[in-house]
């Protein structure tokens, strides 16, 4: 069944594209427009940050991030079923963010050996780490086994046999959860949908019980349970419920065949409102309810892997206007670009943009673009904004997930600075990359150089 969730797609809705600053900020109480200091993030002046470190600059709000963690923990706790949280580290892997998550009692969901090493370096308890992904190398499996992580999500028969061989060679036991593809359409963007039959992820639902049984006979494996993840930016509970019902039935089938199922990893995918839609505010409770009603009575250790919902609203990208360019629809050229924030070019994703200076009357529809030499370097198209002038600041909202972590140095543009705010103060957590660092690790073969 295809569910029509609220999707992270380019919006043609004139209400969303032209929503005024007041409307956008009303949906984000951590942001406030001060008549003197301009836009404040958790009480900190964004103009002061831009003056101190320049632009473009990523800003992460520790207080907002922690509030969102506590909100999700409370939502899961209110349904009466314990649900462990593992942060989807691919959404934001900065050490400061991982430290905050560790302090809040949140584990990690990693998808590469590099993320595993980073999580361990950040002090995350190895028992609280889940390793997902369809292409784990033997070296990555060995690292996970040696680290003693709590769960390895196996996504194919081939991987199950490779993991058995690696665990046997090392004399260790692999804690396995079999990732099931429930063939459920989440109704989200095609590039972030993972739960239908034609994606690369997981084991086909109809094959899962037999493969699980096979795993119980392979050496070096402990078959602990099942995992499922149907996509990202899901805004309605129906696809979650449908997927979890299929998993619950599968738990029954596997147990009826005489095999233990101790845990179910419910994945992530919880969506946020990138525009001014306030109707997604209750989604965490609805997600918790979907988990409780479908899996809560099955004597399982349950967990989730949220990323976007926790981190995206807790971050923004500060940028400065380089110049404007007259056209039928004027262009506002910013110093941030698609190499900094890839999502608009990659997914046609919508991000609200607001001026940092105290609000003026809305001017006209314009395109906000970056200076990268690509036509697709459009950060915000057809936006009604106040008239913008060179040197003015804008904040591109909801970039705390899949923002800085997806940046590149395309066009030889150094990585932007990163700042974290909290308790009314701010600190640089990653300085702007010097341009010389772009070629610091490169060399020219001696044989290439000719007189």
TrEMBL record:
Pyridoxal 5'-phosphate binds at residues 269, 305-308, 402. It holds the Pfam family Orn_DAP_Arg_deC. CDD domains: PLPDE_III_DapDC. Keywords: Amino-acid biosynthesis, Decarboxylase, Lyase, Lysine biosynthesis, Pyridoxal phosphate. It comes from the Bacteria. It catalyses: meso-2,6-diaminopimelate + H(+) = L-lysine + CO2. The modification N6-(pyridoxal phosphate)lysine is found at residue 90. Substrate binds at residues 308, 343, 347, 374, 402. Pathway: Amino-acid biosynthesis; L-lysine biosynthesis via DAP pathway; L-lysine from DL-2,6-diaminopimelate: step 1/1. Its cofactor is pyridoxal 5'-phosphate. One of its GO terms (molecular function) is pyridoxal phosphate binding. Residues 313-400 form the Orn/DAP/Arg decarboxylase 2 C-terminal domain. It is an enzyme of class 4 (lyase). Residues 65-312 form the Orn/DAP/Arg decarboxylase 2 N-terminal domain. The keyword Mitochondrion does not apply. PANTHER family: DIAMINOPIMELATE DECARBOXYLASE, GROUP IV DECARBOXYLASE. Homodimer. Specifically catalyzes the decarboxylation of meso-diaminopimelate (meso-DAP) to L-lysine. This is Diaminopimelate decarboxylase. It comes from Endobacter medicaginis. The lineage of its organism: Bacteria, Pseudomonadati, Pseudomonadota, Alphaproteobacteria, Acetobacterales.
């Amino acid at each position: 069944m295809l569910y029509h969730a609220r999707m992270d797609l380019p919006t043609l809705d004139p209400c969303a594209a032209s929503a005024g600053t007041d409307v956008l900020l009303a949906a984000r109480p951590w942001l406030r427009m001060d008549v003197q200091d301009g836009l404040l993030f958790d009480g900190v002046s964004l103009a002061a940050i831009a003056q101190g470190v320049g632009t473009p600059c990523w800003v992460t709000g520790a207080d907002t991030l922690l509030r969102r963690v506590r909100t999700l923990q409370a939502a899961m706790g209110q349904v009466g079923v314990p649900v462990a949280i593992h942060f989807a580290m691919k959404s934001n892997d900065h050490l400061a963010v991982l430290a905050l998550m560790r302090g809040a009692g949140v584990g990690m969901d990693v998808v590469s050996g590099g993320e595993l090493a980073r999580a361990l370096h950040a002090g995350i308890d190895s028992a609280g780490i889940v390793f997902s992904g369809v292409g784990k190398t033997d070296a990555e499996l060995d690292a996970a086994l040696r680290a003693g992580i709590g769960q390895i999500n196996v996504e194919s028969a081939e991987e199950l046999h490779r993991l058995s061989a690696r665990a046997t060679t090392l004399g260790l036991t692999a804690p396995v959860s079999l990732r099931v593809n429930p063939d459920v359409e989440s109704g989200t963007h095609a590039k972030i949908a993972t739960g239908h039959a034609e994606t690369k992820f997981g084991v086909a639902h109809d094959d899962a019980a037999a493969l699980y049984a096979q795993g119980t006979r392979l050496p070096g494996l402990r078959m602990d349970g099942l995992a499922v993840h149907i996509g990202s930016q899901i805004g309605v509970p129906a696809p979650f419920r449908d997927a979890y019902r299929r998993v619950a039935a599968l738990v029954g089938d596997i147990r009826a065949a005489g095999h233990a199922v101790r845990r179910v990893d419910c994945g992530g995918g919880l969506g946020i409102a990138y525009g001014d839609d306030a109707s997604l505010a209750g989604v965490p409770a609805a997600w918790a309810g979907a988990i409780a009603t479908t899996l809560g009575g099955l004597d399982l250790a349950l967990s989730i892997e949220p990323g976007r919902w926790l981190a995206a609203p807790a971050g923004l990208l500060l940028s400065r206007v380089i110049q404007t360019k007259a056209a039928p629809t004027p262009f506002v050229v910013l110093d941030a670009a698609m190499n900094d924030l890839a999502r608009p070019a990659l997914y046609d994703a919508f991000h609200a943009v607001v001026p940092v200076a105290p609000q003026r009357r809305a001017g006209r529809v314009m395109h906000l673009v970056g200076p990268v030499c690509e036509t697709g370097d459009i950060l915000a198209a057809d936006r009604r904004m106040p008239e913008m002038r060179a040197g003015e600041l804008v904040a591109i909202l909801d970039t705390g997930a899949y923002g800085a972590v997806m940046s590149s140095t395309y066009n030889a543009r150094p990585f932007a600075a990163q700042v974290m705010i909290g308790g009314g103060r701010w600190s640089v957590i990653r300085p702007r990359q010097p341009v010389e660092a772009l070629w610091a690790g490169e060399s020219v073969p001696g044989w290439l150089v000719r007189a």
